[in-house]
Amino acid sequence: MSDETLNVKIVRLEPMRVACVNGYGEGPEVIAFEKMNKYIQEKGLDRDGKQHRVFGFNNPDPAPGSPNYGYDVWVTVDESFKSEGEVKVFDFPGGLYAVASVCPMTGEEIFPAWQQLVAWRERSPYRPAHHQWMEEHIGDIKLSFPDIMLDLFLPIAE
């Protein structure tokens, strides 16, 4: 994906209630998604007929010299959900985002796509903001690279 083909939309993400799990280690995305898939199945979110959005992001970020880092996965839930065990449920306030869709892709393409989105923001009239950077996973949560589609959510301010 080149800067010329980066299609950016400005989106105001509304507040949402989310259930969150964390994976940590080498390849924490796989760990976190396995935990989230189990939670989704246990709670029946995969068969309740509702639209559940799935987001992910590094937490904590990779550190120089270490192969280990963390990855959080969120799934949107309703007000009846409460934290239990390692699944934390909370309200996310939302915010303004520059959003770029990237698909299909390999894991190696994610970082360059983020760099291109940041470069787009630096040329735009928008300023950096401090709410959560996120990747929305579009489609079946059980899919993996190169079959997944991602929307990158870069926090911005006017």
Short description:
With 158 residues, the protein is of the alpha+beta class. Helices cover 19% and strands 37% of the residues.
Overview of the structural elements:
The protein has 158 residues and is an alpha+beta fold. The chain has helices at 28-43, 110-123; strands at 8-13, 16-25, 54-58, 69-76, 88-92, 95-102, 127-128, 134-138, 149-157. The radius of gyration is 16 Å and the shape is globular.
SSE map:
Blueprint: E1 8-13, E2 16-25, H1 28-43, E3 54-58, E4 69-76, E5 88-92, E6 95-102, H2 110-123, E7 127-128, E8 134-138, E9 149-157
Antiparallel strand pairs: 1-6, 2-4, 2-5, 3-4, 3-8, 6-9, 7-9, 8-9
Q: Which range best describes the helical content: under 10%, 10-25%, 25-40%, 40-55%, 55-70% or over 70%?
A: 10-25%
Label the overall shape.
globular
DSSP E strands, number: 9
CATH architecture: Alpha-Beta Barrel
Name the CATH superfamily classification: Regulatory factor, effector binding domain
Order of helices and strands: EEHEEEEHEEE
- How large is the count of helical segments? 2
Largest sheet: 9 strands, antiparallel
Give the class from helix and strand content and strand pairing.
Answer: alpha+beta
Portion in beta strands = 35-45%
Cα-based radius of gyration, to the nearest Å: 16 Å
Low-confidence stretches: none
What is the name of the CATH class?
A: Alpha Beta
Average pLDDT level = 90
Oligomer: single chain
Number of self-contained structural domains: 1
Distance between the termini: 26 Å
CATH topology (fold) name: Multidrug-efflux Transporter 1 Regulator Bmrr, Chain A
